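We modelled the chain as a single entity of 358 amino acids. Its sequence is:
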Amino acid sequence: MRNFIARHQAPFLLMVLLGLIAGATFLSANDSLSVTLTEMFIRVIVVVGLYVFIGNSGIISFGQIGFMCIGAYAAAWATADPSFKQIMLSGLPTFLQDNQYPFLVAIAGSLVLPAVAALCLGAAIMRLSGTAASIATFAFLIIVNSVYSNWDSVTAGVSSIIGIPTVVGPWTAYAFAALAILLAYLFQISRFGLMLRASRDDEVAARASAVKILRMRLAAFVLSAALVGVGGGLYAQFLGILTVDPFYLDLSFITIAMLVVGGMFSLTGAVTGVVAVTAVVEFLRFLERGVTIGGSTLALPQGSQEIGLGIVMALILIFRPTGLSRGREIAIVTAGVPKGASAPDTPALSAEPQRAAR
């Protein structure tokens, strides 16, 4: 029992950590903090979705935010005011134009539509590896941005979609973040996840062991797109207004930065990266607004948060190349040592720290 708890404690500890943060928000009754943490929980879902593909396959994808855009618009099409859709989104099918669907139906749409898009795209590009695969996913992001910016009758182009019910708060976002963590962990320890990680560490050896790398990558790509799409659906129903502009380079950069800062090869890294980067960004925003000292206000120049985030990323890459988590999962309970066996002199390292050490 002790060994079972030690082996599978990480996702539950991460859920407790985020639950404590959500509880602190509830007790503080601070509306601004509540908004910040709701957005942070949504980004946990998105970054955990990134981790499912990037962390397990080792392929950097710049296109996942495109799936977030698809998921957000799917939720907007389902929940926006019908009178607005009939005027501004005249290209939508009648069943979407004339009806306003409940929250869970919208979330289902934001899960299924990106997953189908990922299945079609992944079948074509998952044969690629390394830089070629990354460039292909970046091209997908550009295509999605161009289509959603110019398909006026369906997406309203660069105009805003309004009238989306704002039903997502910190506890709703937390519940979905916890579910995303659990799904990512179950995939990580599944047969698919283990074989995909084996191909990440040594592709030649994995192929020699009859691992179907294309199939494993495609499964991770589709699950990643579904999770990121749900994050987009929650984002749309958190803001209540939607444009295509947020789903491009800035959001791609900051979500990948969160994964890198935390450590892209562990689920713990994905979650702690979001928390750490959100704390840094919010602190820099606070300094940009200015601090009053002795009647005078001292403030950082606008844009300092991007510079500060870049510096933090550079420092972490220099001093902790495997991120804050060092590629390990969070743990409180350690595995028991069998009777008659001696305890190891040093804690076991994951594959990533071992390679870094060499």
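As a brief sanity check on the tokenised model: The chain has a mean pLDDT of 87. The first helix runs from residue 2 to 8.
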